Amino acid sequence: MKSMFKVILSVLALGVAGFVSTASAQEKGKGGKGGGRGGMTIERLEEAVGALTAEQKTKIEAIMAKQREALQAIPQEERMEKGREIMTKGRADIRAVLTAEQQKKFDEMPQGGRGKKQ
Description:
Layout: H1 2-27, H2 42-49, H3 54-72, H4 79-97, H5 100-108
Helix pairs in contact: 1-3, 3-4
């Protein structure tokens, strides 16, 4: 049972690290289309929900930046629980910026690392 917990914790930590590194690279202008290991990017979001307005992009980039900072501030031993909370809040905040049609498509997107729909 402990080994299963360690595996789950490792997978979550890698997912968070992948999201942070992907988002950081994108912010610096280095993140190409797709951006890496599974974190949400503006490009991936647009592929899933359709074109975003400039205002939506600005708001979503601010949400992602805030989310990145919060994830980086979490001590390693608290990342599983608090990281999930931060990611869930970030998804809700991004969803609120989208139109009703975009929200339906957003809800169909797999969530990071788990491959499940919301």
